[in-house]
Design goal:
It is built from eight helices and three strands, in the order αααααααβββα. By secondary structure, the protein is an alpha+beta fold. It has a three-stranded antiparallel β-sheet.
Length: 182
Amino acid sequence: MSSGIDFESLLLLNKAKKEIDIQEIMTDMIDTQCIVISVSNHVVTRTTQLLDNCTNESQVICLITNLSKLIQKCLKSDTDLTVDSINQIFPQTFDQKLKQILIKLIIKNSNNWLKNNKPIQSMSSLIDFQCKTEDNKCVIDLQLSDSNSQISVVLTRDQIHEMTEGMATIRQQLFDAIHKSN
């Protein structure tokens, strides 16, 4: 695995019948990425269809996750998107034909993806945070990468309770998904 991307999972794209199918998978993933945190069921179903229904759901989710990482790495790159700059991201042993198709599609669609999906390029990352309680409320001070000032979030007891219930639900879903695939 190089740069946090499981390139092996991207080899599933070889099952696509046409290059346009790969482009549709990439576009579906980018289009829904701004509104969902996890891999959308629509994207999983559509990708499975475009890969001729010959893969299981966990493989498709792994493919989409790593394709997303690859595209984000390219779109967030400080250098211009060129064949050479994208080629350097891939391991030397990666399937050459698929690599050429992916590079071509990333370069071809990058401007449109950046224009239509601002969160890809503008999302801040968390540098530091502090949490304290004041007057029966939780105050969380966030330091973000693109801001010199701190952002404070104030949560009431009910909001914290609701948030922890939501996180518990997410934890259970992740647990179930992991054990379902085993």
